Automatic annotation (TrEMBL):
The modification 4-aspartylphosphate is found at D53. Residues 129-227 form the OmpR/PhoB-type domain. Coiled coil: none annotated. This is PhoB protein.
Length: 231
């Protein structure tokens, strides 16, 4: 799946290497050296994916994600966060702030291309899917919008797909590994803590409508969109 990718990396040698590998894989690439420059460019152009280094001069990559996720016009841009930080807490922090994936340096070209492919497939529009209405929630897969009681909710792309799956399989319990397969895809490269992070973000998105408790944690089993009280 060819894509337009914006690389945000302050090291010229790494920019050159990433560009060569991504172009070889069939993608179109633009590079900038900092988060502020990327932010200005994103006001004029929307890439299919942002490959973003965490450690940047000035505004960090994580800070840029916060800015993008708070902007209704830019929050749907897929982001893969790149970092030399390999502690679990750093990966979770990157995902919690809104990254779609997190890749640790050093990484192979094959791993990078695979992760880009997974994120792009997850982000592909579901134009043929029908609007879902259940429990006061309305999901429109074509527009990637969610509303409750007529009130639009702010929700990220991954959380949208997670909610779409859970609500169309209401009252069924799915383990983390099952959710990874169904929502992220069987070729997702990562661990099941990713699910916990996005469940937390989904609950926060539903909180303004008072629907966060419908996402139930079933201890020892997984998660469920529960229509009934209790459980």
């Amino acid at each position: 799946m060819a894509a337009q990718i914006l690389v945000v990396e302050d090291e010229p040698a790494i920019q050159t290497l990433l560009t060569a590998n991504l172009v070889r894989a069939g993608h179109a690439v633009r590079c900038v050296g900092g988060a502020e420059e990327a932010r200005e460019l994103l006001l004029q152009w929307r890439p299919d994916l942002l490959l973003l280094d965490w450690e940047l001069p000035g505004m960090s990559g994580v800070d840029l994600i916060r800015v993008l996720r708070s902007d209704p016009k830019q929050r749907e841009v897929p982001v893969i966060l790149v970092s030399a930080r390999n502690e679990e807490r750093d990966k979770i922090a990157g995902l919690e702030v809104g990254a779609d994936d997190y890749i640790t340096k050093p990484f192979s070209t094959r791993e990078l291309i695979a992760r880009i492919g997974v994120v792009l497939r997850r982000r592909a529009p579901q134009a043929n899917a029908e609007v879902v209405r259940l429990a006061g929630i309305v999901l429109d897969p074509a527009a990637m919008t969610v509303s409750a009681a007529g009130r639009p909710l702010s929700i990220g792309g991954t959380e949208f797909r997670l909610l779409h799956f859970l609500i169309t399989h209401a009252d069924r319990v799915y383990s983390r590994s099952q959710l990874l397969d169904h929502v992220w895809g069987a070729d997702f490269v990562g661990d099941d803590r990713t699910v916990d992070v996005h469940i937390s973000r989904l609950r926060n998105a539903l909180l303004p409508a008072g629907l966060d408790r419908m996402i139930r944690t079933i201890r020892g089993s997984g998660y469920s969109f529960a229509l009934a009280e209790g459980g």
